[in-house]
Amino acid sequence: GVLQCLREIITNSIDEATMGFGKKITVELGNNNMVTISDEGRGCPFGKREDGTEALEAIYTMAHSGAKFNDKIFQNVAGMNGIGAKGVALSSEKFSVVSYRNHEWAKLELEKGIKVNFESGKQIEGGNKTGTLVEFQPSQEVYNLEPIVINFEEVKKMCQDWSYLSKGIAFILVNHITNERVTYHSKNGLLDLMKEKGGRTIHKTPLHITIAENGIEAEIVM
User: pLDDT-derived band of residue 28, with 50, 70 and 90 as boundaries?
Assistant: First the structure.
């Protein structure tokens, strides 16, 4: 369940990068199972919605506020229509998200799913940083079957696999407990997976096909 929390937040960042917004995703593991995930995407929307609610709060705490249900641009994304991020926010002891977009920033903080702080402002000196930074500590009260211990090796395997499916996107992983740092960056996608993991080959050159039709893309390596 805790690993699924990481997947939900990371796949949101992958979705942004897949659609052409940002090429770097950073995943950091700290003390007390604190996880930080940041990207260089467009930044989560924030500001007052028509019903008066804060958009950033709605995205992470309210049902049916995601943008991935019907829009054709989202048909190739990996995230779960915004539901996954809410699950992470509501099942964390501490959760915070900072969004940078349109020369502004906003920060939402939750404790056990309850809002404790929201603030926003202008970026310093006309800065134009964009992206989303999520930091969370999974709740031992929620994930109570056993003590929470995030296995960094499993996180590495997960992100390495994603790198083959997300060519051109860099996954930077940092374990602040052991000071380990690793980067996964595939330039050739599934072709790199085949060459690095395929073992003995029948032919020197694998067959590599990329096709697209009606907005649906497929990549085939054999």
Answer: very high
Q: Per-residue pLDDT for 15 more than 70?
A: yes
DSSP helix/strand/coil, 10: helix
Q: What does each C-alpha distance from 55 to 99, 106, 216 come to in angstroms? A: 11, 10, 30
The conformation of residue 48, written as its DSSP 8-state character, comes to: B
Mean pLDDT of the chain, nearest integer: 89
Cα 189 from chain centroid (whole Å): 19
Structure tokens at 111: 């404790």
Closest Cα to residue 181, out of 191, 170, 190, 189?
Answer: 170
CA angle 109, 54, 116 (to 5 degrees): 25
- Is residue 166 over pLDDT 60? yes
pTM: 0.86
pLDDT of 96 > 50? The answer is yes
Q: What is the pLDDT of residue 81?
A: 47
Q: Where are the beta strands (DSSP E) in the chain?
A: 24-29, 35-39, 92-101, 104-111, 114-122, 131-138, 170-175, 180-185, 208-213, 216-221
Q: Which of 149, 195, 196 is nearest to 208 (CA)?
A: 195
| Beta-bridge partner residues of 114 | 111
